[in-house]
């Protein structure tokens, strides 16, 4: 059991470290959001591994709270960023769309669609 214990926690620790690195150097807001969500999932997985290996059911409510926090946080940020994409700039193009999508929107506007 000790091999499974150290292997499980070691892999989760490496994943958490990589998520923290991505959180620190992520150039955009979305990179940081994905890293935070990944970190919360790793924390939930660590709690689940602990509950399973130690046969400790008292951790399960904390696991549920962390999982709900990760879900609500991801949905909230996705709605926030989706709202940012709906805002228009001064020239009428959508903010944050790739150039190909902006060209398509402009072409559709000219054709009257």
Question: Your description of this structure?
Answer:
By secondary structure, this protein is mainly α. 80% of the residues lie in helices and 0% in strands. Helix 1 (2-25) packs antiparallel against helix 2 and helix 2 runs antiparallel to helix 3. The N and C termini lie far apart (64 Å). The model has no long low-confidence stretch (mean pLDDT 81).
Number of beta strands: 0
Task: Tell me the series of helices and strands, N- to C-terminal.
Answer: HHHH
- Unreliable runs: none
Question: What's the end-to-end separation, in Å?
Answer: 64 Å
Query: Could you tell me the radius of gyration in angstroms?
Result: 21 Å
In short:
It is elongated, with a radius of gyration of 21 Å.
List key phrases describing it:
113 residues; elongated; single chain; 4 helices; mainly alpha; 0% strand
SSE blueprint:
Layout lengths: L1 H24 L3 H26 L5 H27 L12 H13 L2
Helix pairs in contact: 1-2, 2-3
